[in-house]
Amino acid sequence: MSKPAALDEELRRIGETYTGKWTYALTDIGSGERIGYDENDVMPAASLIKVPVLIALYQAVEDGRIALDDRITFGDEHRFPGSGVLQRMSSGVEMSVRDAAVLMIIISDNVATNMVADLVGHDFINEQQRRMGMEQTTIFERWSEKLVGLDVRKTWVSTAAEMARNLELLARHEAVSTEASEDMLRILRRQDYRHELSGKLPWSEMNTLPNYQQNWVAEKGGASPGGIRTGGSVFHGERGYFVMAAFCEGGTGPGGTGRESEGNVLLGKLGFAAWDALAAPEGA
């Protein structure tokens, strides 16, 4: 039995205790082997949808429509509550397009997301997903007050398989271009929030892993009411290189609704098991 196949059994065992619905997909970059569980089921994506937004932005740059050093201004039309810092600032704050993308990813800033997504165009984001072969990953609504009380499946959705494929294209430097893929990975590696798939890895107080040039995780997570927790990661370790995406919904177990919610705990266990099996340094 291959390592991924054995890992699949372990991941399914871990997920058995989860009280809601969960899915995952994993691709080993070296061998190309894929494993998963309900990986084609459409699930609420929460802020993990910001990865396709990032990819579409870099495609727009590649097409010559936008430059990363163009200036972009926070307007009242971009304001939206939730994660991030810009919502607490006065409108009129100006930054580069790339800086807005960094805020969108590393602290999941919702205002910065609106700035980037409005600049690129929501139709363009969806079109790029279709061009890359993702038939289910879709943004239906922008980040706005209209979302309050709206069915999460009418906002933005994806599948574990499609989100893992997005990350695989980044890892293989096939998303947009080699240079663009590498820059997106640099941003994703700067993630401040390690609450999902990499949550149980041995992060230092500097948010790095031992021998961080060889051992690193580029990732994005997300959370929404209803027990929705999502995670997508590119894991690079001394023993291997793989991508993984996982979705949780509806868990009612202990831990509350914060970072120790049942969904976050499950994602952390899944990610650690995969890291330990495929990529972690020997003896770590």
Task: Note the main attributes of this structure.
alpha+beta; Beta-lactamase; 5-stranded antiparallel sheet; 3-stranded antiparallel sheet; 10 strands; 19% strand
Round the mean pLDDT to the nearest integer and report it: 92
CATH class: Alpha Beta
Which percent band covers the strand fraction? 15-25%
Q: How does the overall form come out from the CA principal axes?
A: globular
**Which strand order do you get reading across the main beta sheet?**
2-1-10-9-8
CATH architecture: 3-Layer(aba) Sandwich
Tell me the total number of β-strands: 10
Taking all Cα atoms into account, the compactness measure Rg is 18 Å
Per the CATH scheme, the topology name is Beta-lactamase
The domain tally reads 1
In DSSP terms (H or I, runs of 4 or more residues), the helix count works out at 8
The portion of residues assigned to helices is: 25-40%
Class based on secondary structure composition and strand pairing: alpha+beta
